[in-house]
Structures are given as structure tokens and as C-alpha cells.
Amino acid sequence: MTAEELRSIIAAGLACDHLVVEGDGRHWSAVIVSPEFEGRRSIQRHQRVYATLGARMQTDEVHALSMKTFTPAEWAAQHHQS
């Protein structure tokens, strides 16, 4: 699986304002900004992303995924600081 394939899978299942995926084919990191994260705790956000991957997490197609998740407001606040 490529970073672009993984990005497409996540984007197909989750409305994303910003999505960056990097990795080596098994170990991935992602920065995900989604309005669907509003009012959700970190673990709930991660569960929501894992739901987009479904069985790929169990079949080892995606061995590990570390995430930084933000709401649009959190993302905007973080990028307006100098």
C-alpha cells in the first residue's frame, strides 16, 4: 500500500479538511483535520479513523498508524501561533 492509497481510503470514509499521510508501507503517520472530530475525545477520533480502514488493520496491510487529529478550529489555532 502506498501513502496515496492509504490517504484515499481515509478520505473516502471521513470528511477531511486536511490530510497528510507518510510511511514506509507498514508503519504510517497521519495528520488528520476533520469536522467530524468536533466534541470527540482523542480515542474516539482514532476509533473513527480506524473504522475507515476496517479489515486492513486486522490483515496487517496497515501494521501501525500513529495519528495527530484536529478539528478545523484546533488546526487553525495551532497554525496561527508564531
From TrEMBL:
SUPFAM superfamilies: BolA-like. It comes from the Bacteria. InterPro entries: BolA, BolA-like_sf, BolA/IbaG_stress_morph_reg. Pfam families: BolA. Belongs to the BolA/IbaG family. This is BolA/IbaG family iron-sulfur metabolism protein.
